[in-house]
């Protein structure tokens, strides 16, 4: 072998070893189980007596997508966004409610007949009607209760709402996550997509405390950070200018060139906090291997002792639209929009929305 070839081989090997050394923190890789997906589909026959309209509605007639996931009593519970057949035939034009599906194996699900979370004649109606409640993320609290972070959408403005439950069926709404924070400076902020940091304990992902506080990565467009003492009331972490600190931003030429958006609840591991997030591909300056405006899931690693410090970030997505059900639906550009992550029977199960229309699952180790 010629000296130049030996040198080139050494460079390639060195690069490969360096890349491997940088990536042992990654959750995954993810593969799609055969003959399973999509795991949740719309049911045009499902009916629900809406407490605001005072009439029966086909609450999941059009789309079921963007799921949260939690393990409870040896089963996987997926809480998904369901859109009815009201309103304009466009994205965001229907009323969304949250349905729930249950599985013994994490792969085959049976949906409940009625939604478990929805706009009601309550203190949050003005924020949630008529657009609805959307895109949930869920964590188990240290006391065994559950905390839901979801989007409140009234077709004019939106925010992250917080709700709690002891059984996943009966919920108490607490209103916007940042309401009253920093003297009320965030009360009018439009914000969505919030994942509370968890850690694996006794086989369950439980909300984790770092430096005596709970932490939450949030945001669409730019990923930010917030802290809480009680998992209900949150305060954005600010930079020196008094603005929400920016942790992840768009990267030209990458799958997240349009913007990054927080995915499922991040996981604190011995190597750091793994944040699975969703990236939108910018049409002109994005990843040429992806379609224009497609959503794919990536991963980043933050310091577990200093959650705002970015340690590593993958160049390529860990899950991207490839299958027909991921590229056919109301969002034709294609999505693998990750929102639910559980550790179940020795595997990571990642639940994601497909083209704003269906729910699917991918499996990792």
What do you see in this structure?
This protein has 365 residues and is mainly β. It has a single domain, classed as Glycosyl hydrolase domain, family 43 (Tachylectin-2, Chain A, 5 Propeller). The chain contains three helices and 26 strands. Strands 13, 14, 19, 20, 21, 22 and 23 form a seven-stranded mixed beta sheet that branches. Strands 12, 15, 16, 17 and 18 form a five-stranded antiparallel beta sheet that branches. Strands 1-26-25-24 form a four-stranded antiparallel beta sheet. Strand 8 (132-140) and strand 9 form a beta hairpin. The model is unreliable at 1-22 (pLDDT under 50).
Low-confidence stretches: 1-22
Average pLDDT, all residues:
93
As for the CATH topology, it is Tachylectin-2, Chain A
According to CATH, the homologous superfamily is Glycosyl hydrolase domain, family 43
Binned strand content? 35-45%
């Amino acid at each position: 072998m010629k000296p130049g070839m030996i040198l080139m081989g050494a460079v390639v090997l060195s690069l490969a070893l360096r890349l491997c050394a940088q990536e042992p923190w990654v959750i995954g890789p993810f593969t799609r189980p055969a003959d399973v997906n999509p795991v949740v589909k719309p049911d045009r026959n499902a009916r629900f007596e809406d407490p605001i309209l005072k009439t029966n509605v086909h609450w999941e007639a059009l789309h079921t997508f963007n799921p949260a996931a939690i393990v409870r009593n040896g089963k996987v519970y997926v809480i998904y966004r369901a859109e009815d057949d009201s309103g304009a035939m466009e994205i965001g034009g229907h009323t969304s409610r949250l349905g729930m599906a249950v599985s013994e194996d994490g792969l085959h699900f049976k949906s409940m007949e009625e939604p478990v979370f929805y706009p009601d004649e309550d203190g949050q109606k003005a924020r949630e009607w008529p657009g609805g409640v959307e895109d949930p993320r869920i964590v188990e609290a240290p006391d065994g209760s559950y905390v839901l972070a979801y989007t409140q959408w009234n077709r004019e403005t939106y925010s992250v709402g917080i709700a709690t439950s002891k059984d996943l069926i009966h919920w108490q709404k607490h209103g916007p996550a940042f309401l009253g924070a920093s003297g009320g400076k965030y009360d009018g902020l439009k914000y969505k997509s919030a994942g509370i940091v968890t850690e694996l304990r006794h086989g369950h992902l439980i909300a984790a405390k770092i430096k005596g506080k709970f932490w939450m990565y949030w945001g669409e467009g730019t990923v930010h950070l917030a802290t809480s003492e009680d998992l209900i009331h949150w305060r954005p972490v600010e930079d020196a200018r008094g603005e929400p600190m920016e942790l992840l931003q768009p990267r030209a030429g990458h799958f997240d060139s349009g913007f990054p958006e927080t995915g499922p609840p991040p996981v604190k591991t011995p190597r750091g906090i793994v944040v699975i997030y969703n990236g939108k591909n910018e049409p002109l300056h994005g990843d040429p291997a992806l379609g224009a405006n497609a959503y794919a899931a990536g991963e980043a690693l933050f310091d577990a002792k200093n959650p705002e410090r970015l340690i590593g970030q993958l160049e390529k997505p860990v899950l991207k639209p490839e299958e027909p059900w991921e590229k056919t639906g109301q969002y034709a550009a294609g999505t693998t929009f990750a929102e639910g992550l559980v550790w179940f029977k020795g595997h990571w199960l990642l639940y994601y929305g497909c083209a704003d229309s269906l729910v699917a699952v991918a499996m990792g180790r």
